[in-house]
TrEMBL record, chain A:
This is ABC transporter permease. Pfam families: BPD_transp_1 (PF00528). It comes from the Bacteria. Residues 79-292 form the ABC transmembrane type-1 domain. The chain crosses the membrane at residues 12-38, 83-105, 117-139, 159-180, 218-238, 271-293. PROSITE patterns: ABC_TM1. Keywords: Cell membrane, Membrane, Transmembrane, Transmembrane helix, Transport. One of its GO terms (cellular component) is plasma membrane.
From TrEMBL, chain B:
The keyword Thylakoid does not apply. It comes from the Bacteria. Keywords: Cell membrane, Lipoprotein, Membrane, Palmitate, Signal. SUPFAM superfamilies: Periplasmic binding protein-like II. Transmembrane segments: none annotated. This is Sugar ABC transporter substrate-binding protein. Pfam families: SBP_bac_1. Residues 1-21 form the signal peptide. The keyword Lipoprotein applies.
From TrEMBL, chain C:
Keywords: Cell membrane, Membrane, Transmembrane, Transmembrane helix, Transport. This is Sugar ABC transporter permease. It comes from Kitasatospora indigofera. Residues 1-23 are annotated as: Disordered. One of its GO terms (cellular component) is plasma membrane. Gene3D superfamilies: MetI-like (1.10.3720.10). The lineage of its organism: Bacteria, Bacillati, Actinomycetota, Actinomycetes, Kitasatosporales. GO terms for biological process: transmembrane transport. Pfam families: BPD_transp_1.
Length: 304, 438, 301
């Protein structure tokens, strides 16, 4: 009787399990995305001076928002800056996260829980505070760091202009994001059966060899995951440059593609242009990230 | 077991959630007619302690109850308000800066309250009132505070370096050069590209009219001769290194004001509040003086900021326009209300009667060394050049920050930055279908 | 049972089980890894230490003393913060706890059931559904905020607690993480064995799979809690009534009081520091739950 009942229920079960996520996703992601798409094909037209009631009407704009988004040199320049920033950030952050996760997973490490907590903490600091914080740490006249360098007779680097700006931005992101990625990798390290290591240890493998030959291959799926999400986060970089923007003349309001979206939508009040630019960014992100996933698909598929 | 605990917690939280969500009185305009008890009005404002001022009204007017919902001021608040209005969720009353009024009117956020504010016009200076009418017969808001520009300088350090308080911009430039010569580590002031309002005020003083309309056509005059004069003046000072080029309102700037690295600041009448928090050690050492002039003997100034109280179209649709306009008028003209605004919120009232005596009889605590602070301020305010705002100030302002930020950092061409601002503003108007010239 | 999740290396060595420990003396500290980890911790803590110190300074001290020396204003700052608008700060904290607590709990539950289904069943549309859910992260939240607001307003939910809570429940990150974890942590043999015993699918998930996924779901809960706690744009757009603000939007309104009013830096810094404390407590508290895999391993065998 059990087998008689279990067959159809087993076929239907995954759909039942997935239905809440699908419904919520449809309501709070798919529908707004669809709405944003719709808005990207619209624009506002004004009658006369635009001051009376109903002076503004929304009209069909065809592809004109897309045409101006793609032809805006600032979007391209911003993308270039973003890629440069990502090339600096992603290897540094993920390298640090992997190293720290492996170290946490090493036997006989002391104060592991404390270090883990400390490294994760910056992730919990809200953006507003980060902005104030880095203002005090990066501006030479108020920074304790520059104060010490000055005492030592050394000049500090200019972190708010030119190439220093990329380092300053990447540092904020490394500081804020390493802990998150470390925890993701560490969590999957802990899902690795311990017997695998014990066998290797019996064979006389060192901890380094175990890390390189067993652990890193075992956590490859989570490395792919963190790389994938870091890549998307880089392409959508927004909060770090917004943090530094008030402090320096060298950061404009379209420094990264998403800052341009923010400026269009929230400062200049043009949701239509912002939506079109977002769709362009999302499409570029889609192409990049899914070709990456395709590339590593065989290994990353952790499913049985 | 843990799952059960988790579910129980979730259920409790959701229960609490449902209660709070249902129990909360909805914002925006309640559809209920006047017969259903007191009219309830919501008021979005960023002014500190506005709730305390509203409490005075609420005590005296049981039939019209105003609840203040404090907001963060800034560019994005205009967008938030417009979005809320589009969805029919705007508050009944709204604090808005003068330069945001055309944008808000253009997006159908603000109602015309000319009828309800009939006798109010005479309470305000003509140049201020003109900004809330947008030059039409309509009235879109009641002025709350104004912000005439003045020159603040360190009395002690000016004396120490033998500097004369400049009355013209030429003298201002000389003072900057003299100070640099005497002490290269100090600067008279900085040119900051991160607040467009200050530059707009300086351009007003020089006679610029950034937006004007004739018939159905907008004319944008950002890069006219007056604006160019101001841009070139500051660009020249930055280029020769007579003043600093780093932004205001950073910790480094606060320190420079506090430790005397910068000894003057062109700012508005609200500056004492900023000094109090940014340069607390210099209390009693600053003084206010009229803004330097382009032509000796004149006494014109511009404004930097200032705000109004408007009534939304949402309130009008719900039949609350009269009640809301009554509150807006009371807030900004009633002596008791204005006195409370000055005392609780530290604003400089727009109502002319309130600008001398009363709550403003004594100087701000930070300027105890200058007992006639507000008398001087009132004299400075008397001749404020009119402002001319248009429907896309936000675009011009955000372009200003980018273009002038770059020019200031490179010590480059300020008037090219001004042209970039003009072009971006005109292009945006054209894109939206406005008829433009200039 | 060949595989267990039990991680014996971190517990007191069970007698006669771990030959590795017999080779190396169990008490010797691995110095280099410990030091590198502490170095990482110091790098992360220094800026936070600055916030802690800054919160003790009065507004005068904030712009005059730039060392890490503590100031004298902590108690004043706390008192002033508590008095601001009749203690609205504590209301913001309670709101944040509600949004983040309920949101993260529901999010972890949703991620768990979704990740389990995606990892442990083979069915038509599996890859497609997974890819679509994942594609949700592609559209920047900034763009979605305004459409989400307009749709919420249509549903009559704008400016309500629901408007912030509901969109926070679906987390593509959480689903991905839960799927990876379920794939690695739940052996197929266990699932099959339970099926042979006649367990129904939901009961199988609830009493066999879920306990094994707890450490992964705790991680999802933690991430989502922090993400909602620090979320700014969504509540900023959705909420007009400042008594419903979470602490981020509230602090922003303290910072942006208009040009004529001084920004309340000291209050913001103190408020921000206090707002991080619950996150720290949560993190410390949840460390214990990460060990729960030990229990489930024991139950299994």
């Amino acid at each position: 009787m059990a087998s008689h009942q279990s067959r159809p229920s087993r076929r239907l079960a995954p759909y039942a399990f997935l239905s809440p996520a699908v419904v919520l996703f449809a309501l709070f992601f798919a529908l707004p995305i669809g709405y944003a798409l719709y808005l990207s094909f619209r624009s506002v037209q004004v009658k006369g001076l635009g001051l009376g009631s109903h002076a503004r009407t929304e009209v069909w704009a065809g592809l004109s928002n897309y045409a101006s988004a793609i032809s805006d040199p600032e979007l391209l320049a911003g993308s270039g800056r973003t890629l440069l920033y990502g090339a600096l950030l992603v290897p540094a952050m993920l390298g640090a996260a992997l190293l720290l996760a492996l170290l946490l997973d090493t036997p006989r490490v002391r104060l592991g829980a404390l270090s883990r907590l400390a490294i994760f903490l910056p992730y919990a600091v809200p953006g507003i505070v980060a902005s104030l914080l880095w203002g005090f740490l990066y501006l030479p006249t108020v920074s304790p760091g520059y104060f010490l360098l000055d005492r030592a007779g050394l000049g500090g680097p200019d972190l708010l202009h030119g190439n220093g700006l990329f380092v300053a931005l990447a540092n904020i992101a490394v500081w804020g994001g390493t802990g998150f990625n470390m925890i993701v990798i560490y969590t999957s390290l802990r899902a690795v059966p311990a017997e695998l290591y014990e066998a290797a240890r019996l064979d006389g493998a060192s901890e380094l060899q175990i890390a390189l030959r067993i652990k890193i291959p075992m956590v490859l799926p989570s490395l792919v995951l963190t790389f994938f999400f870091s890549m998307i986060a880089t392409l959508q970089v927004f909060s770090e440059p917004m943090t530094l923007k008030p402090l320096t003349n060298s950061m404009n309001s379209t420094w990264s593609p998403l800052m341009k979206v923010y400026r269009d939508a929230f400062v200049q009040g043009d949701i239509h242009s912002a939506a079109a630019t977002s769709v362009v960014i999302a499409a570029a992100t889609l192409v990049l990230s899914f070709s990456f996933l395709k590339l590593v698909n065989n290994r990353s598929d952790g499913g049985s | 077991m843990h799952r059960r605990l988790a579910l129980a917690t979730a259920a409790t939280l959701c229960g609490a959630l449902a209660l709070t969500a249902c129990g909360s009185s909805g914002s925006g305009s309640d559809a209920a007619g006047p017969a259903a008890g007191p009219v309830k009005l919501t008021f979005w404002s960023w002014t500190p302690n506005m709730d305390k001022v509203a409490a005075i009204w609420n005590a005296a007017h049981p039939d019209i109850q105003v609840s203040v919902q404090k907001q963060a001021s800034g560019d994005d608040l205009v967008t938030k308000t417009i979005t809320a209005a589009k969805a029919g969720n705007a508050p009944d009353l709204l604090q808005a800066e003068y330069q945001a009024l055309p944008t808000l009117v253009s997006n159908d956020v603000l109602a015309d309250i000319a009828k309800q504010t009939a006798g109010t016009k005479d309470r305000f200076a003509a140049g201020v009132w003109q900004q809330v009418t947008l030059g039409s017969d309509a009235v879109y808001a009641v002025p709350e505070d104004t912000a005439p520009l003045a020159l603040y300088y360190r009395q002690d350090l000016f004396q120490q370096y033998g500097l004369k308080v400049p009355t013209t911009w030429a003298e201002f430039a000389d003072a900057a050069r003299q100070l640099k010569q005497k002490d290269p580590a100090k600067a008279l002031t900085t040119f900051s590209a991160n607040d467009s309002g200050l530059f707009a005020g300086l351009a007003q003083q020089a006679g610029a009219k950034w937006w004007t309309s004739s018939g159905e056509t907008w004319k944008v005059g950002i890069d006219d001769a007056a604006g160019k004069k101001v841009a070139d003046f500051w660009g020249g000072l930055v280029k020769e290194g007579a003043i600093d080029n780093q932004p205001m309102y950073t910790p480094a700037w606060s320190k420079a004001l506090n430790d005397g690295s910068q000894i003057a600041w062109v700012s508005a009448v609200w500056a004492p509040g900023v000094f109090t928090s940014s340069a607390p050690d210099t209390k009693g050492k600053w003084a206010i003086a009229p803004l330097p002039q382009w032509n000796a003997g004149e006494s014109v100034t511009g404004s930097w900021g200032g705000s109004t109280t408007g009534v939304t179209t949402g309130a009008a649709k719900a039949g609350h326009a009269d009640a809301a306009a009554q509150f807006a008028t009371w807030l900004n003209t009633d002596p008791e209300a204005v006195a409370a605004l000055v005392k609780e919120a530290g604003i400089y009232p727009a109502a002319t009667a309130a600008q001398s005596g009363g709550a403003l009889a004594a100087a701000p605590e930070f300027f105890a060394n200058q007992p006639d602070f507000y008398t001087q301020a009132a004299a400075i305010a008397k001749n404020t050049a009119p402002a001319a705002w248009g429907p896309n100030v936000n675009v011009a302002y955000s372009t200003f920050k980018d273009a002038f930020g770059k020019a200031a950092q490179e010590k480059g061409d300020f008037s090219a930055a001004l042209t970039a601002m003009q072009q971006a503003t005109v292009a945006d108007l054209k894109k939206n279908g406005f008829k433009t010239e200039g | 049972m060949s595989t267990t999740l039990t991680d014996r290396r971190r517990t007191a060595p069970a007698p006669g089980t771990t030959p590795g420990d017999a080779v190396a003396p169990p008490r010797r500290t691995a110095w280099i890894p410990t030091l590198v980890l502490l170095l990482g911790a110091v790098y992360c803590l220094i800026p936070i230490l600055w916030v802690v110190m800054a919160s003790t300074k009065s507004s005068g001290e904030l712009f005059t003393t730039f060392t890490f020396a503590p100031g004298s204003g902590l108690l004043d700052n706390l008192a002033e913060l508590s008095h601001y608008r009749d203690g609205v700060y504590w209301q913001w904290m309670a709101n944040s706890a509600l949004y983040a607590g309920a949101g993260a709990l529901l999010s972890a539950a949703l991620s768990g059931v979704t990740g389990y289904a995606l990892a442990k069943y083979r069915f038509r549309g599996r890859t497609a559904i997974f890819n679509i859910l994942l594609a949700g992260v592609l559209m920047p939240p900034i763009t979605l905020a305004v459409p989400q607001y307009l749709l919420m307003a249509q549903a009559g939910l704008a400016d309500s607690y629901w408007s912030v809570l509901l969109p926070s429940i679906v987390s593509p990150y959480g689903i991905y993480l839960a799927r990876i974890y379920a794939a690695a942590a739940i052996p197929d043999e266990v699932v099959e064995a339970a099926r042979v015993d006649g367990a129904k699918e939901f009961r199988l998930f609830r009493s066999v799979a879920l306990p094994m996924m707890v450490p992964g779901l705790v991680t999802v809960f933690l991430f989502q809690f922090v993400a909602i706690w620090n979320n700014f744009l969504l509540p900023y757009i959705m909420l007009g009534d400042d008594h419903k603000f979470p602490v981020t939007v509230g602090l922003y309104s303290l910072l942006q009081q208009g040009a004529n009013a001084p920004a309340l830096y000291t209050l913001v810094i103190t408020g921000a520091l206090l707002s991080v404390i619950p996150l720290i407590l949560l993190f410390v508290g949840l460390q214990r739950f990460w060990r729960i895999d030990l229990l489930s391993g024991a139950v299994k065998s």
